[in-house]
Amino acid sequence: MRILHLADTHIGTRQYGLEERRRDFSQAFHQAIEIAVREGVDAVVHAGDLFDDRYPSAEDLHETLQALFRLQEAGIPFLGVVGNHEQRRGVQWLDLFAHLGLAVHLSPEPFELQGALFYGLDYSGRRGVELPEMEPGSVLVCHQMLDQVRSDGELRLEDLLRSGARFVLLGDYHEHEVWREGDRIVTYPGSTERWQLDERRPRGVSLLDLETGRLDRRELRTRRFVYIFPDEDPLETLRAKRNALKGAVVCVYLSDRNHRVQEIEERAREYGALAVRVRDVRERLAEDGSDEEAEAPPVQVQLEFGNLDALLSERLAPLELSPEARAIDQVIRDPQIADSRVDAEVTRLLDLLPNR
What we know:
single chain, about 350 residues, alpha/beta, Purple Acid Phosphatase, chain A, domain 2, Rossmann fold, 6-stranded mixed β-sheet
């Protein structure tokens, strides 16, 4: 049995406010689906953050449904869990797709496919992750950060390796990683598009043979990102790479105080760049003592996240909010609730709390 493992597709990300980038994220997902069909896998397993937020647009839903119908036509089931970006109160988008016969929402109860048992855990925040009781040799799919990739990770690698699962298919971390112990495998497939500038490795998906444990990678064709590092002259490097800049996202790490941000942005756009992001590292270099005389201008604040709602979710996650507080937060940020109704909705939720 072979499966395609992917995660963090973040469909709907209008990165840098550009419609072109929204299409890029959708097209990367479609590429992954076409790889699954071409390879003739037995299932596609998505480890969360299918969408970039819990309110995907009509375009995003339409394009996602097209991909899921493509899998259905090929007879390939789509199994998944819910990530932190798309998580909603009550019914999830994945539940809707399951109701339409296009997906399976994995849970702590086993789902059997061709003799293999799949368990799933939706994103649960940083208040402790309880692993389900699993049959030996099974597959666990979850959307959580691992302690091996971030110091405050919610899951410990050793706990996963000691669980009953032979394969643990993760989402949330955006780079491809694999840990093996005997015949057990814990792995992230990485995101299918670059959600942040620092995600420099090629994007891709994983093909996993559940009998042999063989794991192969398939690289995705994504938009070109061109990086210019602090030890390079930005204008000279832009000129040297001008043939590669058309339609690309250009990221410049600016360390030379003799160059202006506006000048760099104008030159990159002159060469056809889709977007230009300048990270001013001169202030950091001065603090490190590498250029004590540098007088850097104020650093430009640039959000590299897909949207503000995602950024707020990331910042609130470490606060370990109660379920009631999370429900109130969702009401406040729900664009479907009119501003005039927010107070009433929050009051209603507060009235439901037990007396303390």
